[in-house]
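Supplementary Note 3. Input sequence used for the single-chain structure prediction.
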Amino acid sequence: MSKIKIAILVSGQGRGSNMQAIIDACRDGRISGEVVAVIGVKPDAPAIERAAAAGVRTFILNPKDFADPADYDRELLSTLASVQADLICLAGYMRKLGRPIIDAYRNRIMNIHPALIPMFFGQGMYGHHVHEAAIERGVKVSGCTVHFVDEDYDTGPIILQTVVPVEDDDTPDTLAARVLVEEHKTYVQAIQLFAEGRLVVEGRRVRVLPR
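The predicted structure, written as discrete structure tokens, is reproduced below.
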């Protein structure tokens, strides 16, 4: 099986743990792929520093440096083309991707969300906001969702979901830590299914083909 080329988009704040999980899984053979680029918004972001320490090529593209959002989209598309990315993985990347990028990589952009979509999702539902909302609502289970990215926040076809129990004494921190463990596993699994050519998108549903 030939290896896929993966580009990871990260934010200026995130620790980069999902990014690191993908890099590690590529290097130890759990993903038939290679991370060819990590693209971030500022050079001193924790995820960018972590990627550089791992020997992965990094690029800095800050949307604020572009007067016209279309110029940012063009530069991002050019960067992705230059590394010949087969799959784009969002790892804490907060910006809604422009239509030209979605169209160019339709069903080839993945994101991980720290809840079971369609619960606690959409604009503003990220990081601890999600876990706070889950605890406040009193749900008995939460989890994580890997989905393809479309034109809106967290609305693309769902690839995989993993359920995590919500304990009576959970805080947002303890729930986040339990979900994060499953995020790493589930994201890696979804990427490997893509690498194996086993994901078929049928409307809003994703079918996983047998081996």
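The longest helix spans residues 172-195. The beta strands are 4-10, 33-40, 58-60, 87-91, 109-113, 141-148, 158-165, 199-202, 205-208.
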